[in-house]
Design brief:
About 35% of the residues lie in helices and about 20% in strands. It is an alpha/beta fold and about 300 residues long. The two termini are about 15 Å apart. Bound molecules: alpha-D-ribofuranose. Alpha-D-ribofuranose binds near residues 36, 37, 92, 106 and 247. Alpha-D-ribofuranose binds near residues 7 and 104.
Length: about 300
């Protein structure tokens, strides 16, 4: 069982030939509405791969909140601890350019109303989890309360520090079993330079010195730098033709959580998650781009090494 505490957003995705300049109006050819939010995306990826997932979140009292709740239920995710907050659901206007790169704005909406009390209320459900997954689109005090709860219950915590938040207390992050920044988040949070591979490794190692068990620095298509007590290595990623990279990082986290919670094999879980994330960028959308276990098994982009460690 995987616990995901975090955000839900309705993604308002515009596919545009380029970003407009200030003051310019530009016609974009396509628009899609979908369910997103880093927390929900990670929960959905793990659930589609076959994990039991329980989510702790707040959705809005509006139609977007209804859509999000229905979607999570439809994915088989336990929503007993997904509450409502008055007002709008979180929303994310997203702009995707032809090469697949994206720009994302987030309006937290109901996500800002997720409190430490909500964490405590979910304690019994989270106690049954193999891994508790957190991100930073909900209040930091709630994230810290969840880390406290994980420690108290003996449930390992994975903190994905996205989006980067300079106010994150790195001492709190160092209480987690897994910390999964990208390079820029790593630099922002450690205050160390990350301009060269050696600097990235040194910044990641500095976190082990402060108590973290494992740092997984996501490097996009280059893969993942894994730094832990066993040493350090880059687990290579996959070069695929990217159509839309939105949510690929969340696909990685959800797939890693699925694979690791079944096997406790970090290397195999990274390989599996790298392949799953690469597969997701070959399709449009965030959650829409995530394969089911059966689809992923048949995916032509799935490398031979990426057997499901849960199989
Ligand atoms: O990581 C991608 C996600 O970031 C999108 O789904 C959007 O909702 C924002 O939370």
């Amino acid at each position: 069982m995987i616990g995901v505490l975090g955000s839900t957003m309705i993604d308002l995705v515009t596919y545009t030939p380029r970003m407009p300049a200030a003051g310019e109006t530009l016609e974009a050819p396509e628009f899609e509405l979908g369910c997103g939010g880093k927390g929900a995306n990670q929960a959905v990826a793990a659930a589609r791969l076959g994990s039991d997932v329980t989510m702790v979140a707040r959705v809005g009292s509006d139609a977007f909140g209804d859509l999000m709740l229905d979607t999570l239920r439809g994915e088989g995710i336990d929503v007993a601890h997904v509450g409502r907050a008055p007002g709008t659901n979180g929303v994310a206007p997203i702009f995707v350019e032809p090469d697949g790169t994206n720009r994302i704005l987030i309006v937290k909406g109901a996500n800002a109303a997720l409190t430490p009390a909500d964490v405590e209320a979910a304690a019994d459900a989270l106690a049954a989890c193999d891994l508790l997954v957190l991100q930073l689109e909900v209040p930091l005090e709630t994230v810290y309360a969840a880390i406290d709860l994980g420690k108290r219950l003996g449930v390992p915590v994975l903190l994905n520090p996205a989006p980067g938040d300079p106010d994150l207390d790195i001492a709190q992050a160092c209480r987690c079993a897994f910390f999964t920044p990208n390079e820029s988040e790593l630099g922002l949070l450690t205050g160390l330079p990350v301009d060269t591979p050696e600097q990235v490794r040194a910044a990641a190692r500095s976190l082990l010195d402060r108590g973290l068990d494992a740092v997984l620095v996501t490097l996009g298509s280059a893969g993942v730098l894994r730094v832990d007590a066993d040493g350090e290595e880059v687990v290579p990623g996959h070069a695929v033709e990217a159509v839309d990279t939105t949510g690929a990082g969340d696909a990685f986290i959800g797939a890693f959580a699925h694979a690791w919670s079944g096997s406790r094999d970090v290397r195999a879980a990274i390989e599996f998650a790298n392949a799953y994330a690469a597969d997701s960028v070959t399709r449009r959308g965030t959650q829409k781009s995530y394969a089911s276990a059966a689809q992923f098994a048949a995916s032509s982009t799935r490398p031979r090494t990426a057997h499901d460690p849960q199989e």
